[in-house]
């Protein structure tokens, strides 16, 4: 245990191999680029919060936006809802996510790799259409579950999706639990079984092993996942927008959305609200960083072994439970979304002609469809490559080197996710138009790649950092001692060990880029618009059926990439070697 | 016609008053001297080779864009369909950084009127119109005459269309007798039963309520919203479905197209639109952006867009409630096409100063709950 803790420090040999000047130069370039891309828009937005006046017209400095935001009782009410909803779903999601991830990674559960993949697919599903699908099931007025209840018990069913618990439920099954499983399973898989065996051999019982071995090893990763989940909770607005109004539940993100989409837009107030979220999150981020730096435990060493625990008689009952979860979180929503594309009216079965191909015809005959499909493929693939290479390098700089600016870099990568996309979109607009050397790419697909990549920088970098911290340095040291160069060690030792996480990162970035709307809406043009913007146009028409068709295309693209990435990641990953 | 002109003058007066304080007006950009004659303009447009057009988001607008491309084969039409709020934000930031990338905007005047006009990001359209051949500018061809602007003293947006939308939607299964007067809405029996599409932002819900404010004033709306606890619904789609199903018997901001689709499927057949209350009108039009990079292409586009063919392309496709002020254009959407000869009957919410003022007051009330 003691030796394992020491690995959290940068590996001296790897560092020795990577010439200091190379690290310094590349690190400074990375820091400069990230600082420009992240700090500039944030500073512009903070400055905007002090600009008083109508958007686009002459303004003066003042605190009106702040007083407007802070004096509104709706703001404090929304803050309370945001925090309580977030705590509820993170608490439930964490318990379930940890348990499922452990079962998938550390036991002999049948079909565990495909079950894990089922949770991946749940993360990629289009949120809005899945929410509409859940309304079909749990609507208090005519939802399928209530109809069934009525038929079985002859009393009105108890389910109401338009409620506080309705929001929690949809979040849990569409993102909170699947994402936790997706991120925690590789971390659990990377735990070295010899640590647990050593504990048992030393006479420790199950509880002591859990408390003294497993918890310290996984806590840094769990904290990162929890923080990422909390940030996503604060950002999320589609579910609350659709389900919350009926129950008078506003959250911060829905307030910001309404301010930014007002006519004229109230960006000043929207920015103030965003800054308040930032103020809540920043201390948590700083604390998490310090904790992770002090308590990170390397588990993948030359002695690494993943010995699955045998579930014995529990094997098939547990398989049944986890399969049921995958069915509820993935199979059922996929069926609902696909069914929706063939329905005359989304979610209504009791109409004259419920089934039609009209929505598919609408989309496939759209002259912009093929162009948008191609744009989505290019933008999402490029974003995935940027995430795997550039963010992989940034994670490496932070974890494995003594580069002077690594703490700053570590802090900066958290920032883009802490501000809502609709506000950051405006910040990026100022960034690309206000920076002369970036201006030439305004209006090109490159700008969408950069913005989409920045949209996933936090999540992807944290996944890679966590993975790197789990990798013991001794493998790199052995490579270096054998005379391998820094570049050779990176290619033949570090990258293969990181392959499963790189696969996860690539797929996450691809999925996020393919679905991005709020950040790219202000930057896309007719020639660069991806499928997500086409989908937005259909939603503007209230054409949810055709929008679901686009959702299916995005889903198929992402799942296709996920299958390839997963096969590659598993082939190159440690568990296969 | 006299009443129509009176209405226009009144609208213009309000617009001037509303835009006056502190609102920098667009600095007029000289239209590049075109060679004499329309042929020379077309030749210059061909030389420019490109038109950068923006119109509203939606599949209907995309169809319109395709027709523009077919009609102007000499030009590369770079058209972006984008929500007016996003377009306005984009243009403001671009022009703050001296980037003049757009030529023309055609669509609802919402944010064009509330954001881009006071920001001075448009240029007077009149010089461009003056350069067009006379045929499409014949006053007799346009209801109310050709020259109709959101603000006659700052003629940056030519209004080409009004749509007659809104009204109250009543499910006759729940309210067989309908509403005989607006006061009935305040009856406690409708407490919590009147649903409105999110009236805290500018949309069909808040504009319908603004229509009520126009008829009965602020206090009436306060009573409806606060005392009678009108229900806010986040999307018009959800509201439409709920009114059709009878979950809410009365709705403001229902999506008429979606309701029509539902009714074709046998759902909500008892729902009727009562235009007596909450009816309002929206304006759409054409604006030329400041320092438009392809001024002659703009003229070529304007000449087509204002022609009968151009107006048919718009009225037939752009939106489910689009129409044309041009009198020789057929009516494609009778439910939402106003009686252009009697525009004084309508409360124009979008595109006039008085309408904007009513909408602002409405939003202040709905947000205060």
List the topology elements:
The complex is a heterodimer of chains A (577) and B (369).
Chain A (H helix, E strand, L loop, with lengths): L1 H5 L5 H6 L2 H30 L1 E2 L7 E2 L2 H8 L1 H34 L5 H13 L2 H12 L5 H10 L10 H26 L3 H9 L4 H30 L2 H7 L7 H9 L6 H29 L19 H27 L16 H7 L4 H32 L5 H7 L2 H4 L2 H14 L10 H26 L3 H8 L4 H30 L15 H10 L3 H29 L5
Helix pairs in contact in A: 3-14, 3-18, 3-20, 4-14, 5-6, 5-9, 5-11, 6-9, 6-15, 6-25, 7-15, 9-11, 9-12, 10-11, 11-14, 11-21, 13-14, 15-25, 16-25, 17-18, 17-21, 17-23, 17-24, 21-23, 22-23, 23-25, 24-25
Chain B lengths: L1 H18 L18 H11 L1 E6 L3 H13 L4 E6 L2 H13 L7 E5 L1 H10 L2 E2 L2 H5 L26 E15 L22 E4 L6 H13 L1 H10 L3 E3 L2 H10 L4 E3 L3 H9 L6 E19 L5 H11 L2 H10 L30 E3 L2 H15 L2
Parallel strand pairs in B: 1-2, 1-3, 6-7, 6-8, 9-10
Antiparallel strand pairs in B: 3-9, 4-9, 5-8, 5-9
Helix pairs in contact in B: 2-11, 3-12, 4-5, 7-8, 7-13, 8-13, 9-10
Describe the structure.
- The complex is a heterodimer of chains A (577) and B (369).
- With 577 residues, chain A is an all-alpha fold.
- Helices cover 73% and strands 1% of the residues of chain A.
- Chain A has 25 helices and 2 strands.
- Chain A has a two-stranded antiparallel sheet.
- In chain A, strand 1 and strand 2 form a beta hairpin.
- Chain A is globular and about 70 Å long.
- The two termini of chain A are 24 Å apart.
- With 369 residues, chain B is of the alpha/beta class.
- Chain B is 40% helix and 18% strand.
- Chain B has 13 helices and 10 strands.
- Chain B has helices at residues 2-19, 38-48, 59-71, 84-96, 110-119, 126-130, 204-216, 218-227, 236-245, 256-264, 295-305, 308-317, 353-367, and strands spanning 50-55, 76-81, 104-108, 122-123, 157-171, 194-197, 231-233, 250-252, 271-289, 348-350.
- In chain B, strands 1, 2, 3, 4, 5, 6, 7, 8, 9 and 10 form a 10-stranded mixed sheet that branches.
- The longest helix of chain B is centred in the N-terminal third of the chain and has 18 residues, at 2-19.
């Amino acid at each position: 245990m003691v030796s394992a803790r020491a690995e959290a420090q940068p590996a001296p040999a790897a560092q020795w191999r990577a010439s200091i000047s190379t690290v310094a130069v590349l690190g400074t370039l990375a820091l400069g680029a990230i600082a420009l891309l992240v700090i500039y828009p944030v500073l512009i937005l903070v400055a905007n919060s002090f600009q008083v006046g109508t958007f686009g017209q002459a303004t003066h400095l003042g605190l009106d936006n702040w007083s407007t935001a802070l004096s509104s009782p709706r703001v404090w009410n929304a803050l309370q809802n945001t925090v309580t909803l977030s705590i509820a779903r993170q608490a439930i999601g964490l318990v379930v996510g940890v348990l499922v991830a452990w079962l998938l990674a550390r036991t002999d559960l049948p079909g565990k790799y495909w079950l894990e993949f089922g949770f991946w697919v749940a993360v990629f599903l289009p949120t809005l259409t899945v929410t509409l699908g859940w309304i079909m099931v749990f609507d208090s007025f005519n939802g399928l579950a209530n109809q069934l209840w009525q038929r079985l018990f002859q009393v009105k069913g108890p389910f109401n999706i338009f409620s506080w618990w309705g929001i929690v439920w949809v979040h849990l099954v569409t993102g909170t639990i699947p994402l936790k499983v997706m991120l925690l399973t590789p971390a659990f898989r990377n735990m070295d079984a010899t640590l647990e065996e050593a504990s048992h051999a030393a006479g420790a019982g199950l509880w002591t092993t859990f408390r003294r071995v497993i918890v310290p090893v996984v806590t840094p990763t769990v904290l990162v996942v929890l923080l990422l989940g909390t940030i996503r909770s604060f950002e999320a607005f589609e579910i609350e927008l659709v389900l919350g109004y009926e129950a008078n539940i506003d959250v911060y993100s829905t307030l910001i959305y309404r301010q930014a989409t007002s006519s004229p837009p109230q960006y000043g107030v929207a920015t103030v609200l965003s800054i308040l979220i930032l103020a809540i999150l920043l201390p948590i981020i700083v604390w998490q960083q310090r904790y992770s730096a002090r308590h990170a435990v390397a588990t993948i060493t030359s002695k690494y072994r993943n010995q699955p625990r045998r579930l014995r008689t529990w094997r098939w009952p547990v398989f049944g439970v986890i399969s049921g979860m995958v069915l509820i979180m993935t199979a059922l929503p996929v069926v609902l979304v696909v069914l929706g594309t063939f329905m005359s009216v989304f979610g209504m079965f009791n109409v004259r002609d419920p089934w039609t191909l009209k929505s598919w015809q609408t989309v496939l005959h759209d002259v912009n469809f093929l162009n948008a499909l191609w744009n989505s493929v290019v933008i999402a693939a490029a974003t995935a490559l940027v995430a795997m290479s550039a963010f992989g390098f940034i994670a490496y700089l932070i974890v494995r080197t003594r580069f002077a600016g690594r703490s700053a870099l570590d802090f900066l990568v958290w920032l883009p996710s802490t501000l809502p996309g609709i506000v950051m979109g405006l910040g990026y607009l100022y960034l690309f138009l206000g920076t002369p050397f970036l201006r030439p790419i305004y209006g090109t697909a490159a700008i969408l790649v950069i913005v989409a990549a920045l949209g996933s920088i936090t999540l992807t970098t944290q996944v890679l950092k966590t993975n790197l911290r789990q990798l013991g340095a001794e493998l790199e040291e052995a490579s270096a001692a054998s005379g391998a160069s820094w570049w050779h060690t990176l290619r033949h030792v570090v990258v293969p060990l990181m392959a499963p996480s790189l696969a996860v990162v690539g797929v996450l970035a691809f999925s996020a880029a393919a679905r991005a709307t709020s950040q790219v809406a202000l930057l896309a043009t007719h020639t660069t618009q991806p499928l997500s913007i086409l989908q937005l146009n259909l939603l503007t028409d209230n054409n949810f059926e055709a929008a679901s068709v686009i959702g299916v295309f995005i889903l198929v693209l992402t799942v296709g990439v996920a299958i390839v990435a997963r096969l590659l990641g598993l082939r190159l990953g440690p568990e296969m070697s | 016609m006299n009443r129509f002109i009176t209405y226009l003058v009144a609208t213009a007066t309000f617009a001037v008053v509303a835009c006056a304080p502190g609102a920098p007006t667009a600095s007029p950009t000289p239209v590049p001297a075109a060679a004499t004659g329309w042929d020379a303009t077309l030749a210059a447009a061909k030389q420019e080779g490109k038109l950068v057009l923006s119109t509203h988001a939606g599949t209907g607008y995309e169809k319109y864009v395709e027709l523009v491309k077919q009609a102007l084969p000499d030009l590369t039409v770079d058209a972006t369909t984008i929500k007016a709020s996003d377009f306005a934000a984009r243009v403001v930031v671009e022009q703050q950084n001296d980037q003049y990338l757009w030529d023309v905007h055609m669509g609802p005047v919402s944010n064009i009127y509330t954001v881009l006009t006071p920001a001075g990001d448009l240029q007077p359209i009149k010089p461009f119109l003056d350069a067009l051949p006379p045929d499409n500018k014949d006053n007799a061809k346009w209801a109310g005459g050709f020259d109709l602007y959101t603000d006659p003293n700052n003629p940056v947006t030519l209004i080409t269309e009004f749509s007659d939308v809104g009204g109250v939607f009543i499910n006759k299964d729940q309210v067989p007798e309908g509403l005989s007067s607006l006061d009935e809405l305040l009856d406690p029996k409708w407490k919590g039963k009147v649903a409105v599409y999110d009236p805290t932002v500018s949309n069909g819900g808040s504009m319908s309520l603004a229509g009520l404010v126009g008829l009965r004033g602020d206090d009436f709306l306060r009573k409806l919203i606060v005392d009678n606890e009108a229900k806010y619904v986040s999307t018009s789609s959800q509201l439409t479905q709920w009114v059709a199903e009878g979950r809410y018997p009365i709705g403001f901001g229902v999506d008429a197209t979606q309701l029509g689709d539902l009714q074709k499927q046998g759902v909500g057949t008892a729902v009727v639109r009562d235009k007596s209350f909450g009816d309002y009108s929206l304006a759409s039009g054409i604006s030329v952006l400041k320092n438009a990079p392809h001024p002659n292409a703009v003229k070529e586009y304007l000449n087509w867009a204002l022609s009968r063919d151009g107006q048919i392309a718009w009225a037939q496709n752009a939106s489910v409630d689009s129409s044309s002020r041009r009198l020789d254009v057929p009516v494609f959407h009778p439910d939402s096409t106003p009686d252009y000869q009697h525009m004084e009957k309508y409360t124009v919410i979008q595109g006039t100063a008085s309408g904007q003022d009513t909408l602002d007051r409405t939003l202040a009330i709905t947000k205060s709950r």
